[in-house]
Amino acid sequence: MDISEFEKNSLSNIILRSSYIPTTNDNDTDKSFFLGIDEAGRGPVLGPMVYSAFFCDENQLSILKDLGCADSKQLTEESRSSIFAKYEQYKNYLGFILKVLSPHMISTCMLRRDKYNLNDMSHDAALELIQLVLDQGVNVKKIFVDTVGSPDTYANKIRARYPKIQITVSKKADSLYPIVSASSICAKVVRDQIVQNWQIHEFDDEKESIEYGSGYPNDPKTKQFLIESMDKIFGFPKFVRFSWSTASTIIDNKCIKVTWDDHENENTTSIIPTKKRKSEVVETTTTKTLFSYFSQKSVTKNDTGHRRISGSHFFRAAHLKPASFHCN
C-alpha cells in the first residue's frame, strides 16, 4: 500500500483507497455489496489507529473464504500480507477505503477542552468511511461492524444516518463475518506497514537504535522506550500517543513543568493560575513568565557567525529554526 502521503505529514489523518474498478456490464447497476468495518491499533500507546471499510459484491463473497479471510489477530503476519496482496486480483468485485488516525491527532483530540474520546472518533471514522464508499457508487445492501462500546447504541447511530441499509453491529464481528475479517486484515496490514516504516525524526543518532516492543502500554520494552525517548522540554516524538495514561504519567513525573499564562506581563514575577489541568499548574509564587524565556538579546552580525545554531531534534523534525535578532 502506498503510504507516502501519510509519511510526508504524520501529524494529520489521511484517507487511503484500493484500486477498485467496477465492471461495465449492463447488469452491474443491480449489484449489491456487503460492507465490513473494523480497526487496528486501538490499544497501543504508539503509532496510528487505522479504520477500514471493506466492500465485496454479494455474489462474490466466496472469494473471501477462498482467500482464507479470518480474524486478523488469529493470522500470522505473513498470512495477512499474502491475503491483502491478493485483494488486487479481484478489484472488479471488492475494494476498501481506510482512514489513518495519526497518534498526534488522537492525543490532541482527547486532551482538547471539549473532549473528543476514542469511541466518538471511532464512530465518526466508521460513518465517514461508509459515506465515502457510497459516494464511490457502491450499492451497499448490508453493513457489518465490529462494535466499539454498546452494540445497540452504535447500530442505532448508523441506522439513523443510513435507514435503508441493513446494519449488524456485534462483538467479535471480525471472527463471525468474513467481510469484517477481510476489513480487519486491511487495517492490520496497513497499520503494521506504517509502524515498521515510521522514521522518528526527533531522535538523535544515539536514540535511533531504541527498540519499542509491541507498542502496548504493559510491554516492558515499550515502557522503556517511552522513558528513553522522552525529552524533558518537548515531551515525546510524534510516534507516541501522549494522551495515554502511561505516557502522561511519565510527562508529569519526568518533564519540566510549565505554567501557561493567559495574560503575559514581563514585569510580573508571580502568577495567579487560571483554570488549568492539574498537570499544567506549577504551585509557586516566583515562577517566571513564559515570555521571559524568549526575551530578545542583542546579537551583532559578527557574533552570529560564531554561534552554533543547531536547535533541538524536535525543532528540526517540525521544520523550525532558531530565531536570531540583529541590532542596527
Q: What would you note in describing this structure?
A:
It contains twelve helices and six strands. The chain is α/β, with parallel strands linked by helices. A six-stranded mixed β-sheet has the order 1-4-3-2-5-6. The chain starts with a helix and ends in an 11-residue tail after the last helix. 32% of the residues are buried.
Taking all residues together, what is the mean pLDDT?
84
Question: What's the number of helices?
Answer: 12
* Assembly context of the chains: single chain
Main beta-sheet annotation: 6 strands, mixed
Q: What is the name of the CATH class of the largest domain?
A: Alpha Beta
Strand content: 5-15%
- What is the percent of helical residues? 25-40%
Organism: Rotaria sordida
Catalytic activity: Endonucleolytic cleavage to 5'-phosphomonoester
Domain RNase H type-2: 32-256
Protein name: Ribonuclease
Secondary structure: elements and pairs:
Elements: H1 4-8, E1 14-17, E2 33-40, E3 49-57, H2 62-67, H3 77-86, E4 94-101, H4 103-111, H5 118-135, E5 140-146, H6 151-161, E6 166-170, H7 173-176, H8 178-197, H9 220-229, H10 245-254, H11 301-306, H12 313-317
Parallel strand pairs: 2-5, 5-6
Antiparallel strand pairs: 1-4, 2-3, 3-4
Helix pairs in contact: 3-8
Task: Give a brief outline of the structure.
This protein is α/β, with parallel strands linked by helices and 328 residues long. Helices cover 35% and strands 12% of the residues.
List its traits.
Arc Repressor Mutant, subunit A; 12 helices; 328 residues; Nucleotidyltransferase, domain 5; single chain; alpha/beta; six-stranded mixed β-sheet
